[in-house]
Amino acid sequence: MAVTATPPRLRVLPDRELSAIMRRGLLLQAGWNFEGMQNLGFLYAIEPGLARIHHDPEERRRAMMRHLGFFNTQPYMAGFAVGACMALEEDAVRCQDSAAEAAASERVERVKRALGSALAALGDPFYWGTLRPATAAFTLLAWVVLWTLEVPAPFFWGTALGLVLYNVPALWARRRGPRLGYELGEGLPAALKRLRWQDKAKAVRAAGFAAALLLAAAALAVPPFGGAPGPWPTALLAGAFALRLRGVTSLRTYLAAALGLALASAVGL
Amino acid sequence: MNTGWHLAGLPLFSAGVAVLELDTALVAQWLVSRPLVVGPLVGWLAGDLEAGIAMGALTEVFCLEELPVGSVVPPNGAVAAAAAVLLTAGPAQVAAAVALPLGLAAGAGHVWVENRVRSWRAALTARAAADLAVEGRVDWAPLWRRSLGLHWAATAFYVYASVALGGALGGALWSMLPEALREGFGRAWAAVPFLAAGSLLARLWR
Q1: pLDDT computed for residue A1 by the predictor
Q2: Fewest Cβ atoms nearer than 10 Å: which of A43, A155, A218, A258?
Q3: CA distance A72 to A63
Q4: Which residues of chain B have pLDDT under 50?
């Protein structure tokens, strides 16, 4: 097929466009809806790239219409897809005849959808499933440590630390995403696999678990809301841990504990 | 009834929380809307940092349980933390043991608001398509203003209504509860950090 025979891409997208795409990516979900999901945000992000690639207004309009279709992925990872789609759009523009161009346009759509799923499969477990709870544990531990060390404004600094720890990897994906996607095009998923996201997630999770363990030990030693240390808090913690692993939510455990303790109070325990 | 609170304090807090809440799903997602940030901030501004820290930490852990994957809308942590803190630190002074579940309920209820706004936003795609067909470009500024403005207004109103209603009902219900149940909630409140710690450990276990 003519599409696969296209020569290597021209580097027509300067830093200015890539930075604009990154900035616009901050509004990726601003138009989230159940039909197109992130479609509006994706179109908004890719618009500067399309303006640079498609000089003919009618061609540009057609490309924009195409990108108004469904798209959804982990929001920090979307830049990778935007970059890869721009690379494919560039290939489409360089096709010699209309049949090849139509095939290339179809390929953009197909790859875009596939990338959305692939990037979500990497980003959701890493950012939402691991980094977010881990940085919650780091923040809480920082509060306790800074407060114990009598550092001024411990909660402010602890929270700031947690936000930085979370946002550095998120910012990396947002900043590098468009460029890497653009440079690698369809080779992007293989390259992202080489970054060993799962290994990194494991390490972050282990560090977060260690922080949560220290927090639990501190809470058991000095109960935060009063009461004396003893076997009951340890039993509660172990019970909540076991129930959560079995899929029982913390809120249900809390309400059950409140009712159970109320009954215990009623019978004089 | 504290008129000043309902006419000035609570509307200002609600509007401010709704601005921060935009970070949850719509703008940037820097996590400045996470309960660990919103709780202490609202508590500090409301004059009860201690309540803000406690509610922020607990709602954070409780709201980590569902992930915003695909079209899943998890309970809103920013709304939950803000409502819990405002119920405790505001003039209603709802007992912390009740303010926490009320706050979490408010966070869960916000899912309905979010889903309504998300359904409405489908009209914006049609608007963008019409812009493209006629002018060959999309006029983004009014489109984002409508999308973010409606979400902000809906959230601000929801926070206001949750705290106003929760304050009135929470206080009244608390005083009507049998002593044994009140004591049970009090003991559960002392136990909640251990439940939260167990839950956080389980979240990071696998």
Answers
A1: 39
A2: A218
A3: 18
A4: none
Q: What is the pLDDT of residue A93?
A: 84
Whether the pLDDT of residue A225 is over 70: the answer is yes
Query: Is residue A37 classed as helix, strand or coil in its secondary structure?
Result: strand
Pick from B132, B185, B196: CB nearest A258? B185
Three-class SS of residue A33? strand
Which residues on chain A are in Cβ contact (under 8 Å) with B190?
223, 225-227
CA distance B48 to chain A (A): 13
Measured in angstroms, the CA of B35 and the nearest CA of chain A are apart by: 10
- Phi, psi dihedrals of residue A247, rounded to the nearest 5°: 95, 5
pLDDT of residue A237 exceeding 80, the answer is yes
Q: Name residues 11-50 of chain B within 8 A of A (Cβ).
A: 25-32, 34, 36-37, 40, 49
Which phi and psi angles does A131 have, rounded to 5°?
A: -65, -40
pLDDT at A13 over 80: no
ipTM of the modeled complex: 0.94
Mean pLDDT, all residues of chain A = 89
Any idea what DSSP says for residue A125? I
| Each residue's pLDDT tens digit, A170-188 | 999 999 999 999 988 888 8
DSSP string, A138-188: HHHHHHHHHHHTT-SSHHHHHHHHHHHHHHHHHHHHHHHHHHHHHHHGGGH
Those residues whose C-beta lies under 8 Å from the C-beta of residue A89, and which sit 6 or more positions away, are A49, A50, A53, A54, A63, A108
Q: Rounded to whole angstroms, how far apart are CA atoms A132 and B182? A: 34
Provide, rounded to the nearest whole percent, the portion of chain A with pLDDT above 90.
64
Question: Is pLDDT of A6 > 50?
Answer: no
> What is d(CA A246, CA A144) in angstroms, rounded to the nearest whole number?
29
Q: Cα–Cα distance between A248 and A221 in angstroms, integer? A: 26
Residue numbers of the domain that contains B58: 3-205
Q: Which helix (H) or strand (E) holds A25?
A: none
Structure tokens at B116: 């309504």
- Which amino acid does the sequence have at A92? A
Cross-strand partners of A37: A33, A71
Tell me the two tokens of residue A184: 């690698």
Is pLDDT larger for residue A122 or for residue A16? A122
